[in-house]
Amino acid sequence: MPQPTSQPGPPPTSQPAPGEAPLGRLLRLMAELRDPACGCAWDVAQTFASIVPYTLEEAYEVADAIERGDLEDLREELGDLLLQVVFHARMAEEAGAFGFDDVAGTIADKLVRRHPHVFDGRGRLLPDAERPRDPAEIERLWSAIKAQERAARGEGARAQAPLAGIARALPALARAEKISRRAAGYGFDWPDAASVVAKVREETDEVAEALAAGAPEAVAEEIGDLLFAVANLARHAGVDPEEALRRGNAKFERRFGAMAERLGREGRSLPDCDLATMEAAWAAVKREEGGLGGGTAG
Q: Is the pTM of this model over 0.85?
């Protein structure tokens, strides 16, 4: 197992050493920040678990920069996300488990293993004529290889269960899409998007029934069923549900801010306005944007 390396020679510096590659400098700086004697007390105190929220946050900030089409910001956010990988790898190296090179090597090997339609058994590129071009065929091949990997890693039937290996740490909406996609791979699926729309309506009616019955536990369960059906609808429509919800959030934020500004120009503030006044301003904002209809949520 790799062991933490010492820092021989002169005292470390935050500046690049002659000929030092950017990635090498980043790895060195992380090691220095984690040094118990002369590093940063906050960095030294962190654990795998304590920085998980930061890792997730940085991934979402990458997605946000892409959504906004801001490549300058994307460069910075990708660096922040890379730092999280370096941070985790450094802590693992300190524990004698693995290092950054092991992480990079593992994913490189996995890429070759999961692309037998691109690389041969020795990792060499296959001739163009031997490569499948049908995306559906490639996805089936990818899924089969992942299933083989899950079976090889697991012990007993649990690892080979049809829905095994879908990360529980995923956002619930994204995990719902993956669960439904896996089930669809076994043929357990609606025939088309219209059928899922009918299911969404059915689940909405069941939420209304639970609300009318005054049953909080049933309401929570039925709302969960409704959200799962919506995730299925997004999959059938070829829409990423997480991305769709992010866009919906952004649209609501934009329109709510515009509504507040519109009321402000009229000398009114949100706390002083009743719902009807806010609804009227909201509808005006939607008309200016070219949106259809009214209502607080649309």
A: no
